[in-house]
TrEMBL record:
GO process terms (BP): GMP salvage; guanine salvage; hypoxanthine metabolic process; IMP salvage; purine ribonucleoside salvage
Underlying gene: hpt
GO MF annotations in UniProt: guanine phosphoribosyltransferase activity; hypoxanthine phosphoribosyltransferase activity; magnesium ion binding; nucleotide binding
Keyword check for rRNA processing: no
Cofactor(s) in the UniProt record: Mg(2+)
Gene source species: Enhygromyxa salina
GO cellular component, one term: cytosol
Pfam entry (one): Pribosyltran
Name of protein: Hypoxanthine phosphoribosyltransferase
Catalytic activity: IMP + diphosphate = hypoxanthine + 5-phospho-alpha-D-ribose 1-diphosphate; GMP + diphosphate = guanine + 5-phospho-alpha-D-ribose 1-diphosphate
Length: 220
């Protein structure tokens, strides 16, 4: 991604191009990122596909549930990393739905999972009888989602499924892999530390419209 045109292509549409990604890339990002893994158009196309699949899956269920004016489908975004994915995905799901958020911490400020999941912000409303679709940026060890899914199942929802943009599947082995399977996955992700499109390192890089691999020198 050395010239303006490839930087702009990775950044995607006109609004994001307005940020002049070529300049931003040359002005510092190039030193931090090793490569762009998924550019903005690739992410966009995949999110649209996921939205279609989700619409098909929940159409019957939403129709079946007789819940008056209470929408049975809830998109549950896990803060903070899921926010761009949730915003884009929600606009591709052609069904009545509501959105809620939870914030959990599992990593602290580093790059390795601590295995300890803490709920920092809980749901605003009850999920009893609702179809809950957890929207997450990335599955790594699966510890965070495993904990969350079990926690939510205890609250009486009609169903709990997972939509993850990225899955570092190769990290998990045997039972761990069987235990943590998302119904919807955008892309399989290599076992590298990635940033952008919501994903951060120490709070930075979430605003990148593409997903790139962070150079190990940045975090080691
Ligand atoms: P898990 O519990 O190991 O599956 O970790 C999931 C959480 O770790 C994600 O929601 C991210 O916040 C974070 N995480 C895992 N891998 C990465 C990465 O490559 N980049 C940024 N955050 C990551």
């Amino acid at each position: 991604m050395s010239d303006e045109s490839s930087a702009d292509r990775s950044a995607g549409n006109a609004e994001t191009r307005a940020a002049n990604w070529a300049e931003i890339w040359e002005g510092g990002l190039r030193a931090d990122l090793r490569e762009v893994l998924f550019d903005a158009p690739t992410i966009h196309d995949r999110v649209v596909e996921m939205g279609r699949a989700i619409t098909t899956h929940y159409t019957d269920r939403a129709n079946m549930a007789n819940m008056g004016d209470k929408s049975p489908l809830l998109l549950l975004g896990i803060l903070k990393g899921s926010y761009p994915f949730l915003a884009d995905l929600a606009r591709t799901v052609n069904l009545p739905l509501t959105v809620d958020f939870m914030a959990v911490s599992s990593y602290g400020a580093g790059t390795k999972s601590s295995g300890v999941v803490r709920i920092l912000k809980d749901l605003d409303r009850s999920i009893e009888g609702r179809h809950v679709l957890i929207v997450e940026d990335i599955i790594d060890t699966g510890l965070t989602l495993h904990y969350l899914r079990e926690n939510l199942r205890g609250r009486g929802p009609a169903s709990v499924e997972i939509a993850a943009l990225l899955d570092k599947k190769s990290v998990r082995k045997g039972k761990e892999l069987e235990d943590m399977n998302a119904r919807y996955v955008g892309f399989e992700c290599p076992n590298e530390f990635v940033v952008g499109y919501g994903l951060d390192y120490k709070g930075r890089y979430r605003n990148l419209p593409f997903i790139g691999v962070l150079r190990p020198e940045v975090y080691s």
